[in-house]
Predict the structure.
Amino acid sequence: MNLIYNSDQYSVVEFGADQGREALRFGGYEIVDKPGRREIFINGELAESFRQHVQDLIATEPSTEEIDDFLGSFDELMRQPVHLH
């Protein structure tokens, strides 16, 4: 598990590949919308696509706002509420 992005709006945690767990066979990402208090875990083909888009975005040396805008494209998919303990 590796925190790869953290802003006031979003945080992204990368989970490495784990052959013993089907959901993490290719790794995955947890994206948290902090103000909305919701999150999504993506794996498989969606995670691979996300990884490629992130690499392309990083190559352009984006601002925090540009990264947050990209992560905002996942807002519609975020259905899981975040519970703090």
